Amino acid sequence: MYNSAVANTQDLQQIESRPYFLGRLTEAQLEEERQKARKKGEEIGEQRGEQKGEHKKAIKAAKNMLADGMTPELISKYLDLDVNIIRTLK
Asked: Residue 11: its pLDDT value, please?
């Protein structure tokens, strides 16, 4: 039907009502979904960055606490860091 040079309205409506076409997104809908995905990716990136920054801050604090003579177990209790990680900082 699309192959003919002139398609009438009824033919187009019939074709566009088929399941293949009904499940398709318009270009505007695709762009909206892309924007949502981009925003979600940015939010995930921000969260990861914040977590990484918090971890770096905890590592720095742990190093200072070790230098002041605190035990790895006590540091782990206050900073919520794994004791094995703290022991590697010595």
From this structure: 75
Q: From CA 52, how far away is CA 61, in angstroms rounded?
A: 14
Q: Rounded to the nearest 5°, which phi and psi values hold at 24?
A: -85, 145
Q: Using the CB atoms, write b or e for 50-79: b if 16+ within 10 Å.
A: eeeeeeeebeeebeebbeeebebeebbeeb
Residues 16-53: tens digit of each pLDDT: 777 766 667 678 888 888 999 999 999 999 999 999 99
Residues with Cβ < 8 Å from 14, sequence gap 6 or more? 1
